[in-house]
Amino acid sequence: MKDTVFISDLHLLPQRPEVIDLFIRFTKEIASSADTLYILGDFLEVWWGDDDPAVEYQPVFNALTNLATENNTEIYLMHGNRDFMIGDVLAEQCHFKIIDDPHKITVQNRDCLLMHGDTLCTDDIEYQKFRQMVRNPQWQQQALTKTLEERFQLAKSIREKSQHSTIGKEEFIMDVNQNDTDKAFTDNHVDLIIHGHTHRPAIHKKMINGQETTRIVLGDWHDTGSYLRINDSSELELQSF
Fold first, then answer.
1. Could you give all domains of the chain from N- to C-terminal order, each with its CATH number?
2. Statement: residue 46 has pLDDT above 60
3. Strand duo 211-217 + 202-208: pairing
4. What gap in Å lies between CA 86 and CA 46, rounded to an integer?
């Protein structure tokens, strides 16, 4: 019986050591008994190139390595809007595989679409323009020509602008657009979507074109660790760690 665990939006940051400690415990107590772990974006609060020595993150990277090499857990990571510069070097170092957004898998004999979730928030036009810019490979290559310090300053500037732009935005703007979410089900021929990003954990069921669909929104890790565990016989239920 295959066990698959899904997490998202940990936003790991050295300045929040309690969340890093929680994740390390999670790898030992929860993920270690799973066949597969999917990290659906915003694993790290900020990452601006695999050339970063990132000494403070080493316990996190060691935990991933141990999970993969000692427990034989397959680890897949999807980029989020905070850690989209994670590259192949870090992936090889930590023994995880980078997957595209979206990414289709099969769970419980159902076709399932995995997403970070930000592409569904199409009412936030300002953010979608930003996303298109920073996900451009040419923009990323140009950014990598800068020094680490210059990239840190760029990240700081982007975060400050993001926090400022969030002030005053209507709540619905930062949530998924329902029409585009329905379209994601029909265009990808799935009846199950799992994503994060919005920090609004919930399980939504809806009839779309005569078919019952399920959308599971993973929670963030600001207070507790939110995760979803699925095997052949489990109920679809969000859990806290």
1. 4-240 (3.60.21.10)
2. yes
3. antiparallel
4. 9
Query: Which tokens sit at 231?
Result: 């095997």
- Give the residue from 14, 84, 18 showing the smallest Cα distance to 53: 14
Query: What CA–CA distance (Å, rounded) separates 105 from 71?
Result: 22
Interatomic CA distance for residues 206 and 209, integer angstroms: 10
Pairwise CA distance, residues 85 & 142, whole Å = 12
H/E run at residue 193: strand 192-195
Torsion sign, CA atoms 236, 195, 157, 55: positive
119-178 pLDDT tens trace: 999 999 989 999 999 999 999 999 999 999 999 898 888 778 776 666 655 565 679 999
Count of CA atoms in the C-beta half-sphere (13 A) of 12: 21
| pLDDT tens for each residue of 50-72 | 999 999 999 999 999 999 999 99
pLDDT given at position 234: 82
Please name every residue paired with 6 in a beta bridge, in sequence order, or none if there are none: 38, 228
